[in-house]
Amino acid sequence: MPGQGGFGDCARALSEGFASSILAHLATGRPYLGICLGLQILFGSSEEAPGCAGLGVFEGHVARLPGGRDLTTGAPLKIPHVGWNVAEPTRMAERMQLLTATEYFYFVHSFAVVPREGRIIAATTDYGPSFVSAVAQDNIFACQFHPEKSQHAGLALLERFLAS
């Protein structure tokens, strides 16, 4: 499920019948790869579009990145977060063998997921405060970063996903 655009527009498309197709796909146990908005829409709501419902596959919500300061330079961090950053895999992600090491991926986003349950967190990334940059459960893997724009690391992740 690719993801560029806003949560509200995607939620409106879901409400026009697209949601049932995605949920039916998930129910079959076939793999789901969510990228950026494809991750965010798995949650029930987003600060980006109050009142618009996501799929609610995972408990939690999507919140605006808070910004902060660069730890090295002290400069304010810009929102949206655009550029290369590290995705630090959790032990669960390493067991699934999708994220096998700390690698750099390409990010373009202003919002991040806030899962209610920590067990689905597959990776975190520091940009000011740490945020969840990937989740995984059963047949679902979804990431905030863009593997298709992440050169070798992204291609390797996509190959591992397809092989799983």
Unreliable segments (pLDDT under 50, ≥5 consecutive)?
none
Instruction: Give the neighbour order of strands across the main sheet.
Output: 1-8-7-6-3-4
Helix content: 25-40%
Largest sheet: 6 strands, mixed
Strand content: 25-35%
**Number of alpha- plus pi-helical segments:** 4
Q: In angstroms, what is the radius of gyration?
A: 15 Å
pLDDT averaged residue by residue: 91
Number of E-state strands: 8
The H-and-E topology, N to C, reads as HEHEEHEEEEEH
Structural class: alpha+beta
C-alpha end-to-end distance? 17 Å
Shape: globular
Give an overview in words:
- The mean pLDDT is 91.
- The strands form two sheets. The protein has a six-stranded mixed β-sheet with strand order 1-8-7-6-3-4. A two-stranded antiparallel sheet has the order 2-5.
- Strand 6 and strand 7 form a beta hairpin.
- The chain is globular.
- The chain contains four helices and eight strands; from the N terminus they run H-E-H-E-E-H-E-E-E-E-E-H.
- The protein is of the alpha+beta class and 164 residues long.
- The longest helix has 21 residues.
Provide key terms for this protein.
single chain; about 160 residues; alpha+beta; 6-stranded mixed β-sheet; two-stranded antiparallel sheet; about 25% helix; about 30% strand; globular
